[in-house]
Amino acid sequence: MKNLVIEGQSLEWLLTSATDAMLIIDHEGKIVLLNPALEKLFGYAPAALLGQTIEMLVPARLRHAHVGQRADFFSQPRPRAMGGGAELMALHRDGREFPVEVSLSPLQGAQAQPLVLATIHDITSRKAAEAALQESEARMRAIFETAVDAIITIDERGIMERLNPAAQALFGYSEAEAAGQNVSILMPAPHRARHDGYLEHYLDTGEKKIIGKGREVEGLRRDGTLFPMDLTVTEMKLGSRRMFTGMVRDITARKAAEQHNRALLQEISSANEELTNFAYVVSHDLKAPLRGIGSLADWLATDYAEHFNDEGREHMRLLINRVHRMGALIDGILQYSRVGRVKEAPLPVDLNKLLADVVDLQAAPAHIRVTVAPGLPVVVVEPTRIQQVFHNLVSNAIKYMDKADGRVEVACADAGADWRFAVSDNGPGIEARHFERIFQLFQTLASRDRVESTGVGLALVKKIVEMYHGQYGVESVIGQGSTFWFTLPKAASPAAAK
């Protein structure tokens, strides 16, 4: 069969030189001639397929049907070009299946023997590409159909082609109603009249006003209502066609929130102005008569001391103490009102030096020892604010001390992104049920006539620490003492500030 002659010509030279896999079979389906390209495609050694039936190159599950198809072809032989719809599965020698496309050409051998020439193409790569394309199209279709934002596609004339479900719900048009109409129907005047001009100007000059940029505009629903929206337009080319995709987001809720925020900011601004006025009144209109009362009380207590009995002297002492307490309360309120409102320039503060000054100003009684851990960090803060924090914590520890051998300790620990500061004492301790209450304004646990306190100190500590986005708290055991702690982000450091 090697020198098969068809119409007086040998085909062996043609098949051998062809780069496509080719073979010739007779009416019984036996392979009478094949080329090296086919042997390579199916993984067989030279001449191993000669005389074998074509069905050995077909998966077993498809062989019976293939025999029938072969018989039908030989009963009515006709040429069938590549791509004519015959996509089959082939069987490699190693047992794996792969898709092929086959073209058939009827031939006639000696003694009018019917033959067929088959050219076989491995289309594995094409099938993989088609599957990837289908998967990509399915993914894009899913995104288009399920996107929360409205998506609209238009051509270069501004005619709408597609609207996703979100766009249909937002504008009130079905895709069938909107398709074929100019996108300007979704715009209020005067943008509607100008839209085609914008598009023509871009196509002529390439100057972009919206394309490729985000912009806040107004949209027009089918029912005539207007709404604010974010619009982003992108351009794409499909062959010679230029298409535009608009991404639309309804920002009605955001605009309402912005308006609400503006109103709140205005209220806050007004409240701050009122607080400033209040602080001015407190500072000038209340402290002046209070100083007069204090001076008069001191004068009476000094010049008329011999005229008072024990009860009178106690009343004068209480009067003078309460005048001083009222002055301290006014000062505390002014300090509290200034936090976050009156700004100082943040500066590098060496806490070692600051704590030394704080402890020195306290003038602690001889039976109370205040110690500060060495090596405290340098932080960038408003100096007055951090001094107020440590002053209040240390002074409270001294003020409420009930031990003959009092100890107050200031320490610092590295807590990752924060510094954790603690002021500990061996005083009376605090019940856990009071932990939240003591950080509230004007709250004290001891009688004000027994321990001078305004109830502002810890509230001031809380407000300053929160201003720096730190945390605060207290740990305590009744009879053994308390530890007040707070954190300060390390971002408030010289390196971070620089």
TrEMBL record:
Keyword Kinase in annotation: yes
Domain of life per record: Bacteria
Alphabetical list of Pfam families matching this protein: HATPase_c (PF02518), HisKA (PF00512), PAS (PF00989)
Residue ranges of domain PAS in the record: 7-59, 136-206
Gene3D superfamilies, alphabetized: 1.10.287.130, Histidine kinase-like ATPase, C-terminal domain, PAS domain
The keyword Nuclease is annotated on this UniProt entry: no
GO annotation, biological process: osmosensory signaling via phosphorelay pathway; regulation of DNA-templated transcription
Name under which the protein is recorded: Sensor protein FixL
Source species of the chain: Rugamonas rubra
